[in-house]
Amino acid sequence: MSNSAAARNPQVKLLDPTPSAAPAAALAPSAAPQASNQRRKRLFAILGAAVVVVGLFTLLWFWLTADDITTDNAYVDADVALVTPLYGGPVAAAYVSNTDRVKKGQVLVLLDSADAKIAVAQAQAELGQVERKVRGYYASDAALGGQVDSRNADIARADAQLASAAADFARARVELSRRQALSASGAVSGDELTQSQNAFSNAKAALDGARAARAQAAAQKTAAQGERSVNSALIEGVSLDANPEVAAARAKLAQAELNLSRTHISAPIDGVIVRNAVQVGQMVQAGQTLMTIVPIQAVYVNANYKEGQLRNVRLGQPATLTADLYGHSVKYHGKVAGIGGGTGAAFSLIPAQNATGNWIKVVQRLPVRIALDPAELQAHPLRVGLSMDADIDVARR
Predict the structure, then answer these.
(1) Half-sphere exposure of residue 257, counting CA atoms within 13 Å on the CB side?
(2) Same domain (yes/no): 125, 240
(3) Quick one: pLDDT at residue 202?
(4) What would the DSSP string read from start to end of 358-384?
(5) What secondary structure does DSSP assign to 135-190, as a single string?
(6) Number of folded domains in the chain?
(7) pTM here?
(8) Which of 72, 131, 191, 264 is the most buried (most CB within 10 A)?
(9) Residue 392 has pLDDT above 70, yes or no
(10) What is the tens place of the pLDDT at every residue in 85-140?
(11) Which domain does 345 fall in, by range?
């Protein structure tokens, strides 16, 4: 029946229980935009999540580093030691070269010691002469003491002679007085009176001579005492070794021996030799710089921070540093040891003249000295002048 109806009416179509291909083809164009929109939404979601994550990490980084100040204007520095001779002479031997590592006390340069040895021998001879001379002072003191005693004896003898002469004079005066009294009556002859007068004159002369001898003995005693005092002033209160003349001669000998020892020029510190300018046969003078020693085990970092970064910097704050030599895989830890007393511009050879009118403000930098951990320096040695990155934690006061 259905077939006949369809035959009579060609516009009537038979119903197909299975879906036709035409509706599926019609639905295909509408499904593609939906998939594209879904992919776009997923990309935007991923991008938004990435932005959020990056933002969170950025905020976290800023939060963690808010109390840190950093700079890449930092360089390794050290308090170097200059090797200078304290005694001049020709160089006999040079034992080190640039880049050599040396220890404190190690002999670096040997100077010709012939002149220094002669000076030591001369000083030894002069010391021996002075010691003998001072021993003579002590011997002279005893001899001068004997002279004083001898002068005392001379004075005693002169006193006795003076007393005898005074007695003779008194007796001669009495005899003369008697003769003179008797001569008026004629009881004494003129010859006797003349003899008495002569005896009186002789006694008076003898008395004057005795007085002069006594005065001479006293003067000789005074002279002997003066000589002994002068000699005693040279030795009084000091022993032979402490005598000034002996001490001066011994000091001269010590200086000569010191000069001899200074012909061996040794390293004052541990470190590495740089700027070596010593040649065998070269005549060096005292105070001339021969070489420089860099103590690589005690280097530090000068970090030049901007003036606005130093508001909260304090001594002892911890710092973390990296060197371009080793990269960021090797970190150094240190502490702020000092802050410079002026900017580099203030102490430059030609300081800035900001009062001229042609002034442009330039951000100034101040050096901050950072001491490094010796153990880390020993594990990863640094050299003076190397570039560093410095990070100071200013949160810790």
Answers:
(1) 8
(2) yes
(3) 83
(4) -------EEEEEEEEPHHHHHHS---T
(5) HHHHHHHHHHHHHHHHHHHHHHHHHHHHHHHHHHHHHHHHHHHHHHHHHTTTSS-H
(6) 3
(7) 0.63
(8) 131
(9) yes
(10) 999 999 999 999 999 999 999 999 999 999 999 999 999 999 999 988 888 777 77
(11) 65-79+295-393
Tokens 């003078």 -> residue? 285
- Cα distances (Å, whole numbers) of residue 136 to 230, 231, 240, 244: 13, 10, 11, 15
Tell me how crowded residue 91 is: count the other CB atoms within 10 A of its CB.
19
Q: What are the helix and strand counts (H, E) for the chain?
A: 6, 14
Mind listing the pLDDT tens digit for each residue in 233-256?
A: 666 767 777 788 888 999 999 999
Q: Are residues 231 and 167 in the same domain?
A: yes
Strands (E), the chain: 68-77, 81-83, 89-94, 101-102, 107-111, 264-266, 271-274, 283-284, 291-294, 300-306, 318-323, 327-339, 365-372, 387-393
The burial of 23, by beta-carbon neighbours within 10 Å (0-12 exposed, 13-18 middle, 19 or more buried), is given as: exposed
Assess whether 309 and 249 both reside in one domain: no
Residues 336 and 305 in one domain: yes
**Is 313 within the bounds of a domain?**
yes
What is the C-alpha separation between 93 and 89, in angstroms, rounded? 12
148: buried, middle or exposed (CB in 10 Å: 19+, 13-18, 0-12)? middle
pLDDT of 273 over the 60 cut: yes
Closest CA to 274 of 301, 292, 296, 298: 292
Of the residues 203, 231, 258, which one is the last residue of a structural domain?
Answer: 258
Q: What is the pLDDT of residue 188?
A: 63
What is the rounded distance in angstroms from the CA atom of residue 384 to the CA atom of residue 274?
11
Q: How confident is the model at residue 1 (pLDDT cuts 50, 70, 90)?
A: very low
